[in-house]
TrEMBL record:
The chain crosses the membrane at residues 46-67, 100-119, 131-149. This is DUF3429 domain-containing protein. InterPro entries: DUF3429. Signal peptide: none annotated. Pfam families: DUF3429. Keywords: Membrane, Transmembrane, Transmembrane helix. It comes from the Bacteria. The keyword Transmembrane helix applies. It comes from Rhodophyticola porphyridii.
Length: 150
C-alpha cells in the first residue's frame, strides 16, 4: 500500500462526520436532546446512522462500479456484478427499524472490504485504496457498533 493522497484522506475523514455524530448523540443524552430539538430526530442517534449508512453503502457501489470500468472480459463482468451488491444489500436489508438496520449495515461494511481488496489486488483501485478503506471502515464499524450496543 502507498500513502493516501492528502485530499482523498481529508474528504474521506469528512465523510465520517455523520457516523461520528450519530454515535456521539447515542452516548451523550444532553447532545442527543439538543440534536433532536435543533436538527430533528432524523439527524440524531440511530436514525442518522441508518440513513447515512445506506447512502454510503450505495456510494461505495458506485466507486466499485468505477473500478470495474477499468477491466475487460470476465474480470469486468465480475466487477460489475459485485459492485451492485452493497447498494442492493442496503436497499433490502437496511430498511425498517434502526436496530436491525444498523446490524445489517455493519455486516454490509465488513463484507465490502473483501470486494475492495479484490479490486485493489487486480490493480483497478488506486494503490492507496486499502489503506484508506481500512481506516474509514474501522471508524464506521465502531460507530455502528455504538448504535448496536446502546
Amino acid at each position: 500500500m502507498s500513502r493516501i493522497p492528502r485530499f482523498a484522506l481529508l474528504i474521506g475523514l469528512a465523510g465520517l462526520i455523520p457516523f461520528l455524530w450519530g454515535a456521539a448523540t447515542l452516548t451523550n443524552p444532553a447532545l442527543q436532546g439538543w440534536s433532536a430539538r435543533v436538527l430533528g430526530s432524523a439527524l440524531t442517534g440511530p436514525f442518522v446512522l441508518q440513513t447515512y449508512g445506506i447512502v454510503i453503502l450505495c456510494f461505495m457501489s458506485g466507486a466499485l462500479w468505477g473500478f470495474a470500468t477499468k477491466a475487460t472480459g470476465a474480470v469486468a463482468a465480475t466487477g460489475y456484478a459485485l459492485s451492485v451488491l452493497p447498494a442492493l444489500w442496503a436497499f433490502f436489508m437496511a430498511q425498517g427499524r434502526p436496530d436491525s438496520a444498523i446490524v445489517a449495515l455493519l455486516a454490509g461494511f465488513i463484507a465490502l472490504l473483501p470486494m475492495d481488496y479484490m479490486f485493489w489486488q487486480q490493480g483497478l483501485a488506486p494503490r492507496w485504496w486499502m489503506a484508506l478503506r481500512l481506516l474509514l471502515t474501522a471508524v464506521v464499524a465502531a460507530c455502528l457498533a455504538v448504535g448496536i450496543v446502546r
